[in-house]
Amino acid sequence: MFTQIALPYAYDALEPVIDTLTVETHYGKHHATYTKNFNDFAEKAGVADKSVEEVLATLDTVEDPALRKALRNNGGGFYNHNLYFSTLSPNAKHAPEGALLEKINATFGSLDAVIEKISAAAAGQFGSGWSWLSANPAGDLMVSASPNQDNPISEGTGFVPILAVDVWEHAYYLKYRNLRPDYIKALFGIIDWKKVEELYATVTT
Questions:
Q1: What integer pLDDT is reported at residue 68 of this predicted model?
Q2: Could you tell me the pTM of the whole model?
Q3: Which domains, ranges and CATH numbers included, belong to the chain?
Q4: Which are the contacts of 149, defined by CB distance < 8 A and separation ≥ 6?
């Protein structure tokens, strides 16, 4: 059974960056629904014994187009939100260290430069979607954006997301209205680079 991440903080802990009602609705309604639906469709497709990463990476093996689409959307929603909520913290580490910082500097020039690139990808995503910092087993880094609930795994890039910026309107609209760039800028104040470092190490070992 696929399990929704247990939030390591209270619903109001991300104030003032993300308001309490948004966290309650986003996590308690949207994410919970993706989780339930993904479990249902995974059972129907006979893939409930696989990891979510494996399901998303092998969507082409699902013959029924409607079921394949349901797994892509709900599996992506489940995976993407688990990542998003896990990397936010009211006590965030504001900069990475070690191997991740070294790779960021080598690839993008500086932490500020990669944040700018991730932010631009998020702000420029037309309609609903995400921007990502992703890594591959060789340690390479990639910034990208995806529509809807797609991600670099379901897109077959060979990269695994280690940081997610959710730009579906339900992630920010109650507080920021149509000012998506303001939300993106504020979000980096609660992104926990310690967690991102851990995810980078997991992908590269």
A1: 98
A2: 0.97
A3: 20-86 (1.10.287.990), 98-204 (3.55.40.20)
A4: 34, 72, 73, 74, 75, 76, 77, 80, 130
